[in-house]
Amino acid sequence: MYNYNNPSNWSWTKAFDEMAKTVNKSELTQQVINHLADYPGESHGEYVKLSKVKQDDLYEILGDIL
Predict the structure, then answer these.
(1) Does pTM surpass 0.85?
(2) What proportions of the chain, in percent to the nearest 5, are helix, strand and coil?
(3) Is the distance from CB of 43 to CB of 34 less than 8 angstroms?
């Protein structure tokens, strides 16, 4: 059965559009985490102080928002 949403059935344009959305989402997520971690380069911000479970929860929430 043909499924338009299956990536193997996408046109090149749709594939590149989906890739651009994924990259943009990843970059926005990283920027938010950097701001929470008091970037630049310091690994003692609020995000790093969270437990692994809370970091995962925050990442999931950001994924839903973005």
Answers:
(1) no
(2) 70, 0, 30
(3) no
